[in-house]
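User: My notes are a mess, but here's the protein and zinc ion's SMILES. Can you give me a structure?
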Amino acid sequence: MSGRSAAALITALLPASLSAQGRAAATYLERYREIVSLSPLPGRGADVSHLSLTRDAGTLFLDAGKLFLLSPVGGRTVGAVFRGQGRFVFAPPIPAERVELQRFAGSATLDEAFSEAILLFTDSTVAQFGALAFGPAEIPGDVAPHVHEVLASLQGEKEGSFSRAVMGPLLNSEDTGFFLTRLIRARGDPVLFQIDPGASEAVQLYRPVSRARWGSNWAVVTQFPPQQEGGTPAAWWYRERLSVPSYRVSVHLTPTFSADLAFAAGATLVLKAVEPVGPWLRLELHPKLVVDSARWETGESANVFKAKESDDVWVLAPHRLQPGDSLTLTLAYHGDLIDRYGNWFFIDPAAAWYPQNGQGRNHATFDVSYHSPGWYPLASVGDRIDSALTGKVLTTRWVTRSPTSYASFNLGLFENYHVQHPGAPPLDVLISDDAHRELGRELHAQGYMVLQQRHMRENVAADVSNSLKLYAHLFGACPHEHFYVTEIPYFEGVSFPGLIDLSWSTFQNTSLDGFDEFFRAHEVAHQWWGNGVEGGSYRDAWLSEGLASFSALLYLQSEAEHKDRYFKYLDEYKADIKGDRDDAGPIWIGYRNATPDVRRGYDVMIYEKGAWVFHMLRMLMLDLSTGRDDRFTAMMRDYYTSRLGRPTTTADFQAVAEQHMGMPMNWFFDEWVKGTGIPTYHVAWTSQPAGEGKYAVRLRVTQEHVPPDFQAFVLVSTDLGNNRFAHFRIHVRGDQAEYLSPVLPAEPKEVKFNDLSSVLADVKMEGW
Ligand SMILES: [Zn+2]
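Assistant: No problem, the inputs look usable. Here's the predicted complex:
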């Protein structure tokens, strides 16, 4: 919140009952200040030997040395420093995570000496120190600076901003198992090992990175759910402790003197405890937004703290909530959310413009009223159920039919183009011709050649309509009967239920290589994958992005003029995947593939390799005698209809795939989703008579760059002359093996190994 010093002054003049907010803000800041000034206490040192602290998959052995307790927070001991000879043993229980550790440390488990451990905790650590004899001890001069260094690495830019994983347990004095240690290792950089009970994958190991380069001081090496008590199985990031099932929001968009739009809103949300939680609850709101007031349904004001330029909003509930407890909170807030350049409004489509759940899944119903200038058409998620113009203010009310993970809106100097293609749902396309002309003039003046297509709206609307039709046909009906397609001044697209935001550039022009058709169809596909079927955790992002890209490739293949693009894009993706394979990890580590070293890792693995995985399944299920995709399409329809509206994990998808393949598919998902191997096949072939003028093909396949047990069903096509072809699959496994084809009616002239790019692999043909 802004103006804290002024608020503190005013507090002194207010009656006690009105000063609660000031006091609570001080409570938050008091805790915060106690945390950032943690330092060793004279008289609180102890000799320590053979003490071990086991925290899930990690154990710290404090073999011999000194322990110094740090100053209290909220009257409790929450920190200590160990100096001496220690050892850290750490073994991730999940194979894919052992591989991640291997990439970082050169070894799948850690057993390493350390000389210093700085500890923060609200778990049983303090009890384990109970047997030590604390007394006066000489504190080495660099202990305090080291503690300060660790705290600074967890701090945000502005006062009050601090690692949420640390802040929550310390604010709430929670005994939920929070533990953090920064270790100075005998060899290599320091590491940070953390048990964050607020995360679904609570066990985390971090490495130091540059904040200037990466925006944070620590990057994840490995993380996984605790072994003892699992996080909620399908939680994207946070453990499901709180649910926010419904929102009522009133948004005021008011023109300012500089012709910008001022943003102010009041949001009423229901907070429902799933587990014991609070009394400090955490919500998330865009860093630029400032909270003006907060109150409970009783009318009582709620104590709230939001640091400048932080997205954490901490709200103090009247008491710690027990499962099933429910509160209704109304927050009023405002801020510089919308920028204007010329005729464009920059409204970041993914911005947290309403308070989002910071302690569980976002999945809620929305009832939003917008009060906006009457001359700017507005589109929002939900059905518009009311619209009224009062003077120059347009008030529209939008209500979602079912819970959604995201709500968004867009407005601008738009013209509304209503279109309905036969067999497709009606669209309202909102674009700004003026803005395009202005942009064109500006770029032209700068010497750029600016191509602007004719029929901008029609071209975009045609792809949106056609891809909507194709996907409804392939996957099943989408729950929305009407769509808004709006233009955004970004080089990206974002898809919300019934609302598709597309980059201005795809309206400006349509490239000849099919990319714009692909881009539009990708965003449309999110109505099925992402909005319809939602990813369960961050590990399942490929089920949205990879599948949206694969669906867009299917759309290109369905269009006569772009048929060949399906394989051209897969080839381009393959080059990217091979380029990054040594630096990026498997699809299954999701966003963690983007690192300071491989920033494109996420795009390449989730979007591009993700699309490949669906292509490979399609090829596995292809009917070789008819060339039809019926089995694959039936699987996708089943997947869509059975998972619609539910968070869905890789394991859920695998179960559907196994049902339709009629075989266990661990091998496939382990190789392609949880693994990083890409085989190179060295192939030689010869033909041999099989009697009665028939032949068989003998193939010798050596596989490289993958483990010996790597297996794949590779599609082989043979040219038998006279325009006759035969297709079969061989089950390749082992370092080197020979395979015999089915009996062929004629002598093969040519053999194509890995036809239709059935496996993400390189093929090198050799003489027999
Ligand atoms: Zn996408």
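Residues 522, 526, 545, 548 surround zinc ion (CB under 6 Å).
User: Great, I'll file this with my notes.
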